[in-house]
């Protein structure tokens, strides 16, 4: 008799679930998720950025020639599920960087937004990374 696992999950009140290790399924290929709208900068953080940092994020995005609407967020565990083809930037903020699918993506690595916001030295280091990725075209 074949069991319907989805109905068991539904009976337990679980409507959404995520397979932790899809690579363990023989022949399974996860479908890549496209970033929303015209996302150019993917912010990889272990928590969603709060409103407290919207001004900081806006200034950082502007230094890259982007708007806040072009910034997306993903949790570190989900970076491999994102279709990275259209991205220009990936920013690992307060988490360990992981390998990306495309080598032409500019990568930024920094401590958390809270640390950056409180430290001129960290802001300067992030700015140098951005400037280097832009090829020194902005001062």
Automatic annotation (TrEMBL):
GO terms for biological process: DNA replication. Keywords: DNA replication, DNA-directed DNA polymerase, Nucleotidyltransferase, Transferase. It comes from the Bacteria. One of its GO terms (molecular function) is 3'-5' exonuclease activity. InterPro entries: DNA_pol_III_psi, DNA_pol_III_psi_sf. Part of the beta sliding clamp loading complex, which hydrolyzes ATP to load the beta clamp onto primed DNA to form the DNA replication pre-initiation complex. DNA polymerase III is a complex, multichain enzyme responsible for most of the replicative synthesis in bacteria. This DNA polymerase also exhibits 3' to 5' exonuclease activity. This is DNA polymerase III subunit psi. It comes from Vibrio sp. HB236076.
């Amino acid at each position: 008799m074949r069991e319907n696992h989805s109905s068991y999950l539904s009976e337990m009140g679980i409507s959404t679930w995520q397979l932790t290790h899809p690579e363990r399924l023989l022949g399974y290929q996860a479908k890549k998720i496209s970033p929303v709208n015209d996302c150019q900068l993917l912010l990889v953080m272990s928590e969603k950025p709060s409103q407290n940092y919207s001004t900081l994020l806006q200034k950082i995005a502007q230094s890259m020639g982007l708007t806040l609407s072009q910034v997306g967020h993903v949790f570190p565990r989900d970076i491999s599920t994102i279709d990275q083809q259209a991205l220009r930037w990936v920013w690992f903020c307060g988490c360990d960087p992981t390998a990306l699918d495309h080598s032409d993506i500019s990568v930024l690595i920094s401590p958390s937004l809270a640390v950056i916001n409180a430290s001129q030295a960290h802001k300067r280091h992030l700015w140098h990374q951005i400037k280097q990725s832009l090829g020194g075209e902005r001062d």
